[in-house]
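Dear colleague,

As promised, here are the two records you asked about, laid out in our usual form so they can be pasted straight into your sheet.

NAME FIELD: protein one
SEQUENCE, THEN STRUCTURE:
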Amino acid sequence: MNHYKDFQYPLENIIGKDNVKIDEYMKNHTSFKVGGPVDILLTPETYEQIKEIIKFAKEKDIPYLVLGNGSNVLVRDGGVRGIIIKLCKLNNIKIEENKIIAQSGALLSKVSSMAAKNSLTGFEFASGIPGSIGGALTMNAGAYNGEISQVIESAYVLNSKGEFQTLTKEELELDYRMSAIIKYGYTVIEAVFNLKKGEQEKIYGRIDDLTNRRKEKQPLEYPSAGSTFKRPAGYFAAKLIEDSGLKGVNVGDAQVSEKHSGFIINKGNANANDIIKLIKLVQQTVKEKFDVELHTEVMIVGED
């Protein structure tokens, strides 16, 4: 039962009718292609609308969650109570000399592409990461020896007091899959990246190389949330999983990828419960065999 439906019309007054959806299934908004309905899904178009939504949610004691591209989130089958604020419509990207200013909902692949078009190097590592700027900054996303902390200059955020503020690179406290965004409950609005001038041919060559490596080694043909587990200190999650004999193991249509053991994939008709059961099986088996705890990189939200 949707206990928050009565807030539909006040929210429509804040962001417009077209940006409010009731009982929207999250399987349509996550890369895993699973997940039950959220009570209210909002897609704001301005920074002020984000501020007003969060202020309203806090005043009315409505739980809320900010979502980017949904590429690092697993929504349970019972869905999410309250509000999800999806920032996909805030996706502008600007170039100012060697800097890129990108809104929170801009896709990493688009930012990487625009950098390449303008002969700016340093963002190639992100060309194949399926997330958005906000999510990538929150998690300090990285791949192939590159990560957000290497190129970020500053971020414009909404803080827990409902005020806009600019955070320097140091104030963002970026670490492995951790940041001040998580620690202090900030909402990323936009980010400024400081890149270097490079040779366009070499930049495109690097992107092509990384694209080919991903296609060869990652199960891109199936829905997933990328690497399911964080890298444990001193180990590689995929190797631990493979050495535990779990490659190809499945629960329903959820499977430990035969191509890359670090990925759990949806073979077609998996539900969130299948994926969560498989995650727990992997964690339990690796713990028993190697006495190493695997923690999920993917964020699990909602209720059964």
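NAME FIELD: protein two
SEQUENCE, THEN STRUCTURE:
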Amino acid sequence: MGFIKVLLPCILSISFFTFAHAATFDITNRCSYTVWAAASPGGGRRLNSSQSWQINVSSGTVGRIWGRTNCSFDGSGRGQCETGDCNGLLECQASSRPPNTLAEFALNQLNNLDLFDISLVDGFNIPIEFSPTTDVCRGVKCTGRINEECPDELRAPGGCNNPCTVFGTNEYCCTDGSGTCPPTEYSRFFRERCPNAYISPQDGQTSTFTCPASTNYRVVFCP
């Protein structure tokens, strides 16, 4: 995760008491293959190519949207996905299993701004666009050839892992609290292909975007 990991403990309690509708998210699959969209909060939905799904999210909510691939579910909505699986459920109720590309958001925060990003802190599985539906602010895309060019040591079925997931050391996870995290060959690999994405926990100043509160958004798989 990106900034969500930092904000979640402080903000999650707010969302329980703030029920006013804040934003609509239009989630569209433009991939040539089926994507099982997931949202927390929101659940999950199978999207064949060109299909869309719309969710409404309350003010103050911190959440994420992602796509799952190569899934199989039974009639009760239980099964598994090759990437992005969330405890074997079609209707996601928890975080996903890496690798997966995350569209993260925190609605109506300080100065009445929405915060959002595309995070590769959990790796990459599907190209994504995360943008406002109007031109009041800018969006972000991550469409580089990451799966195709993924270093062998980061490869996973259907995706490309973040090096922190594979190696678990501070060199790649940047979790020692020092405030410094020099670039590595792996961070440069992701940065060259998705320059505006959240690559490591140090990226908050450069990879978090803002829009006025009550903005509506679109999340597009394979834009």
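A couple of things worth noting about protein two: The helical segments are 4-15, 146-149, 163-167, 170-173, 185-193, 204-207. Residues 5-19 have pLDDT under 50 and may be disordered.

Best,
R.
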